[in-house]
Specification:
Number of domains: 2
CATH class of the largest domain: Mainly Alpha
Structural class: mainly alpha
Oligomer: single chain
Order of helices and strands: HHHHHHHEEHEH
Distance between the termini: 23 Å
CATH architecture of the largest domain: Up-down Bundle
Length: 309
């Protein structure tokens, strides 16, 4: 399975310690914002904390993935780890959705009955958040250029800075004009942003967990391409599913002529090359047979995209 991790080998320890520092900073900010939000009675500060916490989680995921990639996971474990990662992401996202919905609900209630907010605390806590975000962004900037995972982490941090800037401006407006409504508006914006973000990630996560055929693979086209490989007579019982964001798996039956049995290795090699290069499937299980197994359902398998296991 090592070829799947080719982009990880340049992971130097500097990026790992930088990530740890970022996680630590992020968690500290999150805590400060939660406390600050409660003290200042500011919902937008709490939403920002949630947003920040989400990013700490994604940084942790990045770290765990890196650690595993460094260890060079054994093939039996890769599946386990990646599954765990997806399930962890799922739990994290569901929690986020609940919290974001709660904040939005509170925000809407405050439209009706505005509450006084301590703009001073709100302003300074958000300032601390912004500073820490800047430090993190500066730390990750160099590595973000050539590592996809680091880039994702970097983009998260930058999106955090935006919400912190919003809260800072809000705090300033509250100190100056006592426009408490600004806090509510910010809460709705950040809350909706979190929900929107979660919606997309949840869709992907659920599809992976449901073992749905990846969107970008057309099963009929795939079967046809496989059937066009030399000496392949027929393809059936074809399943494609996803292990995680970037590995597709396939299993299928391949029917060949009896007299071609000696060439199984070559046929298999050309099939695997086709799957890897054209369909980005790096892990395939192919079962060869000389007589097509005439099972009653094999006729429909072709057109039946989500054929259950």
């Amino acid at each position: 399975m090592s070829h799947e991790h080719h982009h990880h080998h340049n992971v130097d320890d500097s990026s790992i310690w930088k990530l740890w520092v970022s996680v630590f900073l992020n968690l500290v900010i999150t805590l400060a914002q939660v406390v600050g939000g409660i003290v200042a009675n500011s919902l937008s500060l709490l939403s920002d904390a949630v947003h920040n916490f989400n990013d700490s989680m994604s940084l942790v995921t990045t770290l765990v993935t890196k650690k595993i990639a460094k260890k060079g996971a054994t093939s039996s474990k890769t599946f386990g780890y990646k599954r765990a990662e997806i399930i962890g992401a799922f739990a994290n996202l569901v929690t986020l959705v609940i919290v974001a919905l709660f904040l939005i609900k509170e925000g809407i209630e405050r439209f009706i009955t505005p509450q006084p907010i301590d703009g001073f605390t709100m302003f300074w806590v958000a300032m601390i958040g912004l500073t820490a975000n800047f430090i993190t962004a500066a730390l990750l900037w160099k590595n973000a250029r050539d590592d996809l995972n680091m880039r994702a982490a970097f983009i998260h941090i930058v999106s955090d800075t935006l919400s912190s800037v919003g809260v800072i401006i809000g705090g300033w407006l509250i100190i100056k004009y006592e426009w408490y409504i600004v806090d509510t508006i910010l809460t709705l914006i950040i809350g909706s942003y979190i929900l929107w973000h979660c919606y997309h990630m949840l869709r992907e996560t659920i599809e992976i967990l449901m073992e749905a055929t990846p969107d970008n693979i057309d099963l009929d086209e795939l079967a046809e391409a496989m059937q066009n490989v030399e000496k392949v007579r027929e393809i059936h019982h074809i399943h494609v599913w996803r292990l995680d964001e970037n590995s597709n798996l396939l299993e299928s039956h391949v029917v060949i002529e009896k007299e071609d049995l000696s060439q199984i290795e070559e046929i298999k090699r050309s099939l695997k090359t086709l799957l890897r290069e054209r369909f980005n499937i790096n892990h395939s299980t192919l079962e060869f047979e000389t007589e097509p197994c005439r099972s009653p359902d094999h006729e429909v398998v072709h057109h039946h995209h989500h054929h259950e296991h």
